[in-house]
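Reminder: ligand-aware prediction takes two inputs, not one.
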Amino acid sequence: MSKRVLTTESGAPVADNQNSATAGVGGPILLQDQHLLEKLARFNRERIPERVVHARGSGAYGHFEVTDDVTGFTSADFLSEVGKKTETFLRFSTVADSLGGADAVRDPRGFALKFYTAEGNYDLVGNNTPVFFIKDPIKFPDFIHSQKRDPFTGKQEADNVWDFWAHAPEATHQVTWLMGDRGIPASYRHMNGYGSHTYQWTNAQGEAFFVKYHFKTNQGIRSLSADQAAELVGKDGNSHQTDLLQSIERGVYPSWTLYVQLMPAAEAADYRFNPFDLTKVWPHSDYPLQRVGRLVLDRNPDNVFAEVEQAAFSPNNFVPGIGPSPDKMLQGRLFAYADAHRYRLGVNHTLLPVNAPKATVANNYGRDGLMAANAQGRGAKNYEPNSFGGPVETGLPLSAPLAIHGYTGTHEAPAHTKDDDFFQAGELYRLMSEEEKQRLVANIAGGLSQVSRDDIIEKNIAHFAAADADYGKRVEEAVRALRD
Ligand code: HEM
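Here is what comes back for the chain with protoporphyrin IX containing FE:
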C-alpha cells in the first residue's frame, strides 16, 4: 500500500515530523519551521468552552420508528404514519461536573434527542427524571452555581448544595427522586428518558393537546448503590461511555419505547396540578401512557469531538405540529440553549454535520459570520421578500395559538387546587418499599450531615417532614446519628 504523504494544513508536504529545524546541530529553533509553529499553535486551540452544565456526555446515532397512530393529536410529519423512520442523534450526560468528571455519580442524566425530520430538526432536550428542582428559570444560574464547584474551594460543597435546597421547597420532589434508587443509573442504557416539560401538540384540524414524553428503556432499569458507584468510579471513571460505546460496537443496540401522556388543552386550566409546573408529574391514573414508537441507537460517532462535543440541542427547535407550553422553565430554555451555542460553538454551529438538517435543507437569509461554510449560489439574494425566487414563508402556524390573560409582572406560577411543594414528594416516598425508604434516608443523611450549619440542616428536614412526617423523622434521626 503506497503511503499517504503527511502535509501542513495548506497541503504542502512535511519533510520531518520528528525533529524541529534548528540553526545548526544543537542550535536554537528557527522561526521558519512552519510545520512546528502550525502544529503547536493548532494544539493550543484544540479545546473550546465546555457546556456550562451537562459538560460530560456520550452520544450515538440511531432512528425512531412510529409504532402507533398519533395523527389525531399532532400533525408532525415524522409521526404521521406507522412504520415511518427518522434518523436521530442522542447525547446523554451528567449535569454538575466539568468535562473529565466521573460517570457513575449521583446526578440527573441528560437525555438530549435530535430527530432529523423532513420538516427540520426537532430537538427534545430532556433528562432521566420526569421533574426538576425549580420551576422558574430566573433561579437556574443560582441553582447551578450551588451544585457545581465552589469558586473558593474548587470543589462541590455540601453547604452550597443543601443551602440552595433549603431555600427551594419546590425541589423536595426532585431531591427525593435523586436520592432514591434511581439516582445513580448503572449506565445510560439502563435508564428512562423524559421530556420532563409539558409541550404542545397540534393536530391537522388545529386542535391543541398538552403532552409529556416518556422514553422507557427496553434494557430494564438498573441502578447502582452509593457503594457500588464509588467502587466503579475508582475502576473506570468513564463507565457510562465505555458501556454505550462497547454495546453498540458489539451490535447490542439499546432501545427505548416512547409513550406520551396527552391532555386536551381545555382541561389544563382546571387540572388539580398546574400542568406547566416542572416540579410536578401528571399521575398516570389521570393521563395514561399511550405508546408512540421505538428509538434505537445503532451507530457510534466516528469522532467524539466533532459529533458529541460540538452537538447542539435547543428546546426551541420545533417542527410543525409541536410547540412550547407556557411552562416558565421551558420558556427560559427556549432562549438559553441557542445563546449558549453561539458562545460555545459560534454563530455557524448549525452548519456542522451533526447539527445540520439531514432530511431537508436549511433555506434562509442568515449569512456570513465566523466560519461561514454555506456559500450561496451565484445571484442568490440575501434579503426577503425578493423577486428572484428566494425562499418564502408558508403562512401556516406551527402550533395552535394559546389564550392568555392578566397583567404583566413578576408573578409566581399559578397554584391549582392540589398544588403545594410537598404533596407529590410525599406520594413518591409513600410508594417506596421499606428497603427503598431506608436507602433514600441513608443517602440524604450522608450528604446533609456534612453541612456545617444547623439552620440549613433543619430547613431541609422540615421539607422532608412536610412531604411525609415519617420521612422527616427518619432523616432527622439519621442525620443526628451521623453527626453525634
Ligand atoms: C431554565 C432552566 C434551564 C436553563 C437556563 C438551562 C440551560 C442549559 C445550558 C446553557 C446548557 C448548555 C447548552 C450547550 O452549551 O450546548 C444546558 C444543557 C442541557 N440541559 Fe439545560 N437548562 C435548564 C433546565 C434544564 C432542564 C429542566 C432539563 C431537562 C428536562 C435540561 C436538560 C439539559 C440537557 C440534557 C443538556 C445537555 C444537552 C446536550 O447534550 O448537549 N436543562 N442547559
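Residues 328-344 form the longest helix (17 residues). Residues 385 and 392 are 7 Å apart (CA to CA). We will return to this case in the review session.
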